[in-house]
Amino acid sequence: MNTAFDMLGVVSPGRESWRFKVRVLRLWTTSSFLQPEVVNTLEMVLIDEKGVKIHASVRRQLLYLFQSKISEGNVYKMSYFTVSPASGFYRTTPHPYKLVFQLKTKVQVSESNKIDLYGLSLTKISDIHSEVAAPEFLVDVIGVITGMSADREYIRDGKVVKMIVFELTDQSGKCECALFGDYVHSLQSMLGKAHNGLPVVVVQFAKIKTFRGSISIQNIINATRLFVNPAIEEADALKNGIAANGIETPSTIPLLGARAKPSYEEDFLLNYPKITIAELVEKAEDGVYVVCAVVDGLVEGEDWWYPACNCHRSVVADSGAYYCKVCVKHVYQMFPRYKVKFRVADSTGNAVFVVFDSDMRLLIHKDCSDVVAAFKPESSIEYPTDFKLLKGMRLLFKVEKVTNAFEQFDVSYKVKRVCNELSTIEAFVVPEVTNSPTRVLSSGFSESEDESDMEHEFVEDSLNRDIVVQGDGGAGCAGSLEAVHFKDSVVDSAGEVISLDDDSDAGITEFVSAASKLAKDAKLFAVKRNLSSAFAECNDVGESSNPSKCLKTKED
């Protein structure tokens, strides 16, 4: 061993006269936050002959000196660095320090067959699921691809970005991996050249992603590396180990489809008890029930959207940012999501149903961010006009009844899914109840409608938008968008795959129908409530439906 060179394992602050012989294991650039087209830094991971790795950075002012001199995979003699503590999330190595290039840093091409070409530090999939692997560090994972989704597209910052999800299996378990952007084409190209059974894939420098309790891995743009059937001992050992443990693997990669949601018929006619509003109010048992009711109006004086984290849970303004209690961290982006309180009625009574983001988009065909941006509250207008157009709609609601401490003050029901498909609504029959509501006035009485004027309407998805907080992050309450601006973001239907556990809706439909009159002497169970306490920590539990053709009644 050449003792003239320092080993990366002994690097510590207080000295600049370091001399290393290292291989550039990974090399990439980062962009300026305000000017994405401008290169801000040159980042790299270095490895020495002992297999120790360290992160190194070249700041923008020195790019002209080093960017053309350094190539990924090559070995160099490097000297003179500043040493700084390594910190933050998604660190490339567990080394406590990183190297910072200086004006006097020297770089000279060299050779060495003692320095590893791959520099893998493999993590078992079981360690990822059991959280033994720390999420602040990027991980290297090897596995056999045992499933793959079709590639999809979503919109980000006005650009179309591809995404794909595949399943990795090692001897300890299975885990999903999501790839974005150019990584999709790279993987598909490498798989096209792979033969002889299921391919072994190495994902190096991947981040661990936890979303609503589900753990997966994802690529980091520009930093992650992919290998398919690499010529390394670990790949051979993996295949032999899987065979020895009797784990069955098909000869071709199975297609992973999107999680199938129950059909309208299953969800609203077969899977859950069908009851009236009066029965729902009187039910002693918690559970999920299906109710057919007409939208009677909106609960006055209530917020109709809430600021949400990327996990869809509510956030609160704190210290110039937003704090998410679920993610247990501060975030600098918040997303407006619907949480609308409707008064609904049937022939037996009325109640308040809380409808969330995906179902509201289904009903009004607009993203919450667009409605919030366009809404200009006046003294006489509490809600957007789009909401008031929903009055009189007859819908099926899959609602959740949960007994809680607020029930005596706030008897309301979270809507898990809305159905506006005409055939399903017409097939809905509550046992021993023959009355079906029509358009219900605020008094609780019905108004006859003419069903002769019907038109088919099909509306496609619309894009969602992010709200990016600027300044002190004070814009967090409904009706105010000071200090925020919008940017294009992932549509919620794509978010399902991006987050790997998002129940967002992909289809948008609308329907209005009418039937027999409400009896004027019907007993009404009025339910008054205040949601401000019970839903201070509101969570979007809305489910979604698939696109379908639907009917809409024109009003005279």
Automatic annotation (TrEMBL):
Gene3D superfamilies: Nucleic acid-binding proteins
Domain Replication factor A C-terminal as annotated: residue spans: 298-407
Residues spanning the signal sequence: none
Any Pfam family hit: DUF223
Domain of life: Eukaryota
Residue span, Replication protein A 70 kDa DNA-binding subunit B/D first OB fold domain: 5-108
Keyword DNA-binding attributed: yes
The keyword Metal-binding belongs to this UniProt entry's keyword annotation: yes
Keywords from the UniProt entry: DNA-binding, Metal-binding, Zinc, Zinc-finger
Coiled coil start-end: none
Record GO terms (molecular function): DNA binding; zinc ion binding
Annotated family: Belongs to the replication factor A protein 1 family.
Protein name: Replication factor-A carboxy-terminal domain protein
Organism this protein belongs to: Trifolium pratense
Lineage, top ranks: Eukaryota, Viridiplantae, Streptophyta, Embryophyta, Tracheophyta
